[in-house]
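Hi X.,

You mentioned you wanted examples for the new student's onboarding notes, showing what a folding record looks like when two proteins sit in one file. Here is a clean example. The first protein comes first, with its sequence line followed by its structure tokens.
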Amino acid sequence: MKTSFFYDVTKWKTGNPYEDIGAVMNDIIRDIKEKQTERDEDDGGKPGAAIFIPSGDYHLRTQVVIDISFLKIFGTGHGFESSSIRFNVPEEEVPALWELWPGGSRIINDLAGSADGTEEEGAAFLIRREGNPRISAVEFQNFCIDGLHFTGNENNDAENSYRNGKTGIYAVSANDSFKINEMGIVYCEHGIVMYDSDALSIHDNFIAECGNCIELRRFGQASKITDNLIGAGYNGYSIFAENFGGLLVTANNVFPRGKSSLHFSYVQRSSISGNRFHSFYPGILRLEEGSSENLVSSNHFLRDNEPWDPMKQYDNGEDDLLGLVVIDGSHNSFISNHISENIEKDSLKPNRDVKPVVLHITGGDDNYIANNHMLVMTKDDGHAESVRESDSCFGAQVNALLLKTKPMEAVLIRVDATSSGNIILDSAREGEVDIDKSQNTFRAIPE
């Protein structure tokens, strides 16, 4: 008789998944390994298994350690709900809220993460298996991982600190063909951390209100981050990748408040297309440490002011001379992008008289910048009425997006003396650039 490798955490023979789903999952993984011992049996032997999480709230007090391939963990809903809004609602309004916590198939990370511990200690799911072949085809789908509370001490405002030492999914070992789809991850200092990934798919997730959302570390290749809704905190990355080749970043909607929406560190021959990047700070996109031969095309970049009162005291520490897009690398193409900066003059740093920089090439050579539409605007005080009156986060952000504006002086493109051979076409007018034309090719938009 064939053995079933479908497991329901609520029907497993040992443990209580509502009190510690981690212990239950570890016991299920132990059972899978005991039943799948043959490496080559009738051209098979270790097909893996599926673990189902029905809707409900499940505390995780024991870290889940995954050391088998072909494992799928899935639930009935990503369950994301804004904990940031909930923790910033006036106390007198809390009794009227319909819900207080995220839902769906929700795993509550109760591990004792701390700034003093290692990152992997606070990870709800730890992927670790050394040797060959690499651990492969592990899938996470359609459930919520909730860090519950932030505990850092930013201006005595712990719940807005984005720090608690907790991680959702942490792969420390080299991995192949992982899929992270339709997940909700909230209030973790690190949402997804993947080391040494090959053919990784991070698709259609809701990863927000995390200190950092997606981090591809050490090195990797041939992966994609697509169709996600993402938003990190002011001291972390929405999307970060280092030493990566062949990464596709497409069709993501990246919210404020990450200190950068997308940060590449020595990423080569990759594509960034069709995304919407929205930030409250300079440094939305950073191609750094020699990131080269990348295509950045058909994206929408927006930078404006933080409109929500509880978060106005925070920023990423950068000033407006940095640029919204920063390139330190060679042979990159930045083509047919739209960049909007709508900023109040009094918020400019280091002072209100500075001309904000939009695209800044700080190093590298022979980049191709063409056919981009860049505009820098400021509030039009003659048309400053709100579209709708609201003190809510949602209402404040909608009003900010629909605010009437007027043009403001800016440096649309700056090329530092450390970079040369760049070709810049039809992306700025003559008086809107800071470029050594003897070292770079420049064709202005006609006046």
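Then the second protein repeats the pattern, sequence line and then tokens:
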Amino acid sequence: MSLVELIARADERGLAAGGLACLDRCVSLLGGDDEILRPLWAGLADGAEPEEWTTRLEQVRVKLQTDATDDTETTGEGGAEGEAVLLARRMLAAAPATRSAASVREWADACSVAALRIHRLLDASATGASSVDSFREGRTEGMPPLVEAELRRQTRVLELLAEHGAGGLRQAMAVSTEGRRVLRAVVSRRARGRA
């Protein structure tokens, strides 16, 4: 089943986890540590009321001091890294204050695209068109390795939640943690290459 189909079939918890996992893997681009999104994960796991999501999301935004403007000068970097930071900021800025099925579906879909684009931007082997739509629809020809790994993680998170509900959250977080480490290593390697 393609990623687009998995998102279309996911329930509210699966969608929220899918969007959160994408943001979690990219949070280091915003200066966040490994624990910054844990309150949001915990809220999904313990079945917290939607109002709790709102409160916890606002706390995360304050901690990250995210400026959601589209001004690339605020990223402090140019090129691929600057664009990747901007995409990560937009993911956080677009997180719905009210956790409803409709709002998290739109957010999860946008986060999926943004996370794949971030991985494509930072993949040194990526060539050709920058669109990730065909990959999300199941056509994988010419997919750069970093994008392929991110696509697998997104798919796995949605599958875990579909199969196990709240019981799949711990495994989904582990998938996300692995992806966060990979992206952090890629960004570090690119920085060393520029030095």
